[in-house]
Amino acid sequence: MFVGTITFDLLLGDVRSLKQKRAVVRPIVAELRRRFDVAVAEVGHQDLHRRAEVGVAVVAGDSRQCIDVLDAVEQHVAYRPEIELLSTRRRIHNDEDEE
């Protein structure tokens, strides 16, 4: 079993309140869940208006499948016009990794 994770550091467009931030981040999270069947959550920068950190996780039987899903998710996020992708962090874990 393999678990792939990716974290996105996002700069949001013209956002001036946490309410406006939620209006941008929630649809992204919902679409990633629906389209790629992955676990997604806002995991950081909750108190900043123009920044968001979103984490995505996928479980698969082989590492190539994890990588393919994470590649597709990253490409989808990178092409969103209302956000700027500042950085990503990616990791593949398997059940033989030491704790």
Features:
single chain, 99 residues, Alpha-Beta Plaits, 2 helices, elongated
Overview of the molecule:
By secondary structure, the protein is an alpha+beta fold. The protein has a single domain (2-94), classed as TT1725-like (Alpha-Beta Plaits, 2-Layer Sandwich). Helix content is 35%, strand content 39%. The protein has two helices and four strands. Strands 2-3-1-4 form a four-stranded antiparallel β-sheet, with helices on one face. Strand 2 (39-44) and strand 3 (51-60) form a beta hairpin. 21% of the residues are buried. The model has no long low-confidence stretch (mean pLDDT 93). InterPro entries: DUF503, TT1725-like_sf.
Sequence-ordered SSE layout with sheet pairings:
Layout (H helix, E strand, L loop, with lengths): L1 E11 L5 H19 L2 E6 L6 E10 L2 H16 L4 E12 L5
InterPro entries: DUF503, TT1725-like_sf
Q: How much helix, percentage-wise, in residues?
A: 25-40%
Strand content: 35-45%
Low-confidence stretches: none
Which CATH class applies here?
Alpha Beta
Q: What Rg is obtained from the alpha carbons, in whole angstroms?
A: 14 Å
